[in-house]
Amino acid sequence: MNRAERRRKAKATKKKPAGEERTSAPRLDIDQIKGQLQQAASPQEVQQFIGQLLEHGLPQAGGEELIAYAAQYHEALAALNSADDAASVARLVNSAHAWADDRIAQSSECDRRACKAGCAFCCYLPVVLASAAEVVHLADWLRANCTPDELAAVRKRLKARREQDATNSPAQKRLPCALLQDDTCMAYDARPFKCRGWNSVRLEACEQAYGQSETTTPVPVDTFAFVMGNAVLNGLSDATRNAELDGGAYELNAALLRALDLPDATLRWRNGERLFDGGR
Ligand code: SF4
């Protein structure tokens, strides 16, 4: 069953009357739930299991999150089992990003989002997290899409950020991501899940957070988009772990510098090496 069919199934689940959803108090262990979803032999089994959870009190939004997670998990694992060259890693990550974008675009809050081209308050952060698969893919993407001068400039910014990270106090650590160029993400098409899923619904809150160093000023975000970005990321990460690859999350700037220093980073990751330990 492909993703379009899974989406139709998801919609069918969504139509259940709310009154039928709470037959008893939910006693849910997320690891057990994920384990069952991973063991499911077919999308029908996934759907059946999630249907049971909904009947026992799982909120509808939780059901949609699990559907996105399971769809990505099974697709990623099948892809990892069918090919192991560098090109397959690009297909794996691109497909996962496309699936996340598809889910994120289904949010009912799309019209409320304050994000627009040239607005980059959220790209000034002490930490930008990305999965190992995304990092090696991003390094390949930069090599393929940047001129030598652009690549050299990115490396320079990555090194500068590494030095600032090592010397600045926590209060000074609201640093620009090294991929930010003229307030635009130069790798927008390959940006990590965390960036895709982060969509503010209040510009003033972004401005305040930006002006307050590392202080955690709450920024209201499109919750559905945030949850879906994480659900697809978790599906990909769990599939890579179960394929005995590095499914960890790392600080993007530090890990990207390392990946750019290793011309064969993607193949090494695909062969099971842990390239970024220490940068987590
Ligand atoms: S990867 Fe791009 S979108 Fe994400 S923080 Fe860096 S510049 Fe911003």
Give your account of this protein's structure.
This protein is mainly alpha-helical. It has one domain (3-270). Helices cover 57% and strands 4% of the residues. It is built from twelve helices and four strands. A hairpin with a 2-residue loop joins strand 2 (180-181) and strand 3 (184-185). Helix 3 runs antiparallel to helix 4 and helix 4 (60-82) runs parallel beside helix 10. Mean pLDDT is 89; it is low at 13-23. The protein binds iron/sulfur cluster. Iron/sulfur cluster (SF4) binds next to loops.
What pattern of helices and strands is seen along the backbone? Answer: HHHHHEHHEEHHHEHH
Please bin the fraction of helical residues: 55-70%
Mean pLDDT: 89
Number of strands: 4
The count of domains is 1
- Coarse structural class: mainly alpha
Radius of gyration over all CA atoms, rounded: 20 Å
Report the β-strand fraction as a percent range.
under 5%
Query: Biggest sheet: strands side by side, in what order?
Result: 1-4
Distance between the termini: 36 Å
Q: How is the biggest beta sheet arranged? A: 2 strands, antiparallel
Low-confidence stretches: 13-23
Distinct bound molecules: iron/sulfur cluster
Number of helices: 12
Principal-axes shape call:
globular
Compact overview of the structure:
By secondary structure, the chain is mainly alpha-helical. The chain is built from 12 helices and 4 strands, in the order H-H-H-H-H-E-H-H-E-E-H-H-H-E-H-H. The site of iron/sulfur cluster has 9 residues, from loops.
